[in-house]
Specification:
11 helices, Rossmann fold, Metallo-beta-lactamase, Chain A, alpha/beta, 2 domains
């Protein structure tokens, strides 16, 4: 009997388990997650997965005991077992091997470790895959951190402030941020006669909401706009929407750090980021794709201590994304200075995307003072860094008007 799926992940840390599942999926394998060991024996014997990854510490049981119990059955159907733990590897790895595991995975999970483990235990990804979902269009309407003026007005990278739409041609419309890019996005929605859209604001700094006040879309009676954003003591989202003077129907709701089911097709989740004022990053799963939008987040350099665990939290949040739009507002040199606080450089963005198993990276929120020559230089350096990390990551600086098909 063939395996129902490739990998059974057993881990009570839901965030870690889901992050691992995303990486497994990004590498071309199928998986299922169980949050504890209570049903592992039954599920493993039923589904006969090719690989079990068992966390050592779980409520009510432990991975080493499960490994010893399951080993004869797993050998019988030709499967393999790996044990994972954040405990001292020098102590736990020999114990895992003695219990019958073939490999030890240190936690937190890293893409390189998982890729090596799957290659060693499962070989290459299955040749036969489910048909790919229909193309999903992501359009960048604005990506600059602040309004661009003067000599930079003709920049090929763009001049508008943040706004990105998803699925504009398909009926359901989701928009990230309401910077000046929303003006062009709104005009396109009016032209397409779209009936409604959901706008998700990361925070309320001027560059992320300035497009709301002159958006053509809001003067169209019958159009419905849902505006979501974080709860912030400095900004009342309901009042902000009421001040728009819209003829369209505008409603607002607050977003917390959790999952939201927008429709049968769309699942959105959020996480807070390290940026002045209350700021969110969004993950949107739509048409079988995962899009992560995080235009503002200060991440530590590779040689810095991650005091707030900001890098690891965002790495897990972005794991396996088909597209990641991530703060790369500064050069590494500028980020190290006083003006760089609250933002990241392309170095942190490439490192995070590579370790998270991201497919495509759009370096986002470029500083308003960087001209085309400077951004082309930074883009080349980012691509070289991705190559040196032996990553298949596609990366580049975001450009106004660019359409990305997933």
């Amino acid at each position: 009997m063939a395996a129902e799926y490739d990998v059974l992940i057993v881990d009570d840390d839901v965030m870690q388990a889901n992050a691992l599942a995303e990486v497994v999926s990004a590498l071309g394998f199928s998986s299922r997650v169980l949050p504890d060991g209570a049903r592992v024996l039954e599920e493993a014997r039923r589904a006969k997965p090719r690989l079990l990854i068992l966390d050592i510490i779980m409520p009510g049981t432990d991975g080493l005991s499960l490994c010893m119990k399951l080993k004869p059955d797993v050998l019988g159907w030709g499967g393999r077992i790996a044990v994972a733990s954040g405990k001292d590897r020098t102590v736990e790895e020999p114990r895992a091997m003695k219990a019958g595991a073939e490999l030890f995975l240190p936690k937190p999970y890293r893409v390189r470790d998982v890729k090596e483990a799957l290659g060693q235990l499962l070989g290459s990804a299955p040749a036969e895959r489910a048909p790919a979902p229909a193309d999903l269009a992501v359009k960048i309407w604005g990506s600059r951190g602040r309004p661009v003026s003067g000599a930079l007005m003709g920049s090929q990278y763009g001049t508008r402030t943040p706004c990105v739409s998803v699925g504009l041609a398909s009926g359901d419309v989701y928009i990230f941020d309401g910077g000046s890019g929303l003006l062009d996005c709104g005009a396109a929605l009016v032209k397409s006669n779209a009936p409604a859209a959901t706008l998700m604001l990361t925070h309320y700094h001027a560059a992320h909401v300035e497009g709301l006040h002159a958006c053509e879309l809001l003067q169209r009676p019958g159009f419905e706009l849902r505006v979501a954003g974080p709860m912030d003591p400095d900004t009342n989202l309901s009042e902000l929407c009421q001040r728009l003077g819209a003829k369209a129907k505008v409603s607002s709701f607050f977003i917390e750090e959790r999952e939201y089911r927008f429709s049968d097709r769309a699942l959105m989740s959020t996480t807070f980021t390290n940026h002045p004022t209350t700021t969110l990053a969004y993950s949107l799963r739509l048409e079988g794709r995962k899009i992560v939008y995080c235009p503002d987040a200060e991440l530590p350099a590779e040689d810095e201590v991650d005091v707030g665990n900001n890098f690891e939290r965002l790495r897990q949040f972005a794991a396996g994304a088909d597209l990641l739009l991530l703060d790369a507002a500064r050069t590494p040199e500028d980020k190290a200075g006083p003006a760089g606080k609250g933002h990241s450089s392309w170095e942190e963005a490439v490192r995070l995307a590579s370790e998270a198993g991201v497919r495509r990276l759009q370096l986002f929120h470029a500083g308003a003072s960087y001209n085309d020559a400077k951004l082309a230089e930074l883009e080349a350096a980012a691509k070289q860094a991705a190559s040196e990390r032996q990553s298949a990551l596609e990366c580049g600086y975001a450009k106004d008007g660019a359409v990305i098909l997933l």
